[in-house]
Amino acid sequence: MPKGILESLLSGEGTIVPHVQPMYRLQDNRMVAQEYLARHLDKAGIAHPVGPILQNPTLPPEDRLTLDLRFLDATFAALAQRGTGNHLHFVNLEPVSLEAPGFWARLPRWLEALSFPVECVVMEFTESQGMHDLEALQTYAKRLRDVGLRVAVDDLGAGVASLTQMARLAPDYIKADRSLVEQVHRRPYQAALLNALSHFARHMCIGFIAEGIETMEELEAVMDADVPWGQGFILGQPWPTRPKPIAASES
What we know:
By secondary structure, the chain is an alpha/beta fold.
């Protein structure tokens, strides 16, 4: 990305607009959650994902922390303004923030500003972020739960370590990575894995979401694999306001 954009975001001048992407209970097309995704605006007012910025291995840890705290500030401000207790709110979290005193100092203020129960907020730990100290991660997850938040393991299937994370963190929700969903209608091994994870989640009484569903064929295969919740462009693209349900009405 252009150096000027990064400098603008780090200085606090760049505009950050949280977008939301819906998650649906596939059995009845009911929206049950939204994932908050940070976007930055360019000079033309066009929104761009911040994921590539945070995933850049050359980004210094101190800059990564500054950016993530800015994104979290914007996300929780949006939650305070328009969040409701009618569904869950998934918020991505960088390990570098968990390790920072600044995050824990801000967290009480963020939660106090919410007009709905804290239990409706789910903090996502992503395997691709490469945090290998599972004991530390367990400690951070416990601290989040102690204040009422829920925990999710994201990107399940993107790496071997994700299974260890799932087992050790005992999350409230697990999200299957796009790599398990892509072309699943043509790949029986992937379908079998999704089905096995679905049975596991049901047995452990935790939520299970397949993310990155982009085609109707993938959606049908995910549903055939008994995955209860889904997320992806075929269901709803990230949007700066509340997404519209795909169902005609919610019961």
